[in-house]
Amino acid sequence: MSHRRQEVKFHAVLTIDKTEIVLVDTPGLHKSSQELNKRINQQAREGVDGADLNLLLIDLTKDVLQQFVDFKENLKKEIGRTWVVFTKADRVEAASELPLSMVMEKAKEIVPNLEKHFLISNKTGE
């Protein structure tokens, strides 16, 4: 009996004028020695191959710089053009006043191809 590796990738296609944007959602990277989690991490690594632009989601309710360090350690390869999306802004008091530009400068030392950053809240839709 052979075991096939089944990959699950989520795609969404958005067309604006004559431009087609294909969004690929990959699992998040995390440390784990379990086989399933190793495979999930491999899918995330493969998801960045060939991408014109990556969106890296960073949770504002957790240690922000440590998330960049963990991402770099778990990705185990260089990543191309990347925009950072800081999530859960509604859970952080005065999130719009955070020194995110300074954070991004430090983060670029860890992940050099970071270009821009955005602040979002799923709860408020901002």
Structure description:
- There is one protein chain.
- The chain has 126 residues and is α/β, with parallel strands linked by helices.
- It has three helices and five strands.
- It has helices at 35-47, 64-75, 100-110; strands at residues 10-16, 19-25, 54-59, 82-87, 114-119.
- Strands 3-4-5 form a three-stranded parallel beta sheet, with helices on one face. A two-stranded antiparallel sheet has the order 1-2.
- A hairpin with a 2-residue loop joins strand 1 (10-16) and strand 2 (19-25).
- Helix 2 runs parallel beside helix 3 (100-110).
- It is globular, with a radius of gyration of 16 Å.
- Residues 1-6 have low confidence and may be disordered.
Number of strands: 5
* Overall SS class: alpha/beta
* Proportion of beta-strand residues: 25-35%
For the termini, the CA-CA separation is: 51 Å
Count helical runs.
3
Chain-averaged pLDDT: 82
Helical content, roughly? 25-40%
- SSE string, helices as H and strands as E: EEHEHEHE
As residue ranges, the low-confidence spans are 1-6
Gross geometry: globular
Largest sheet: number of strands, sense, barrel closure:
3 strands, parallel
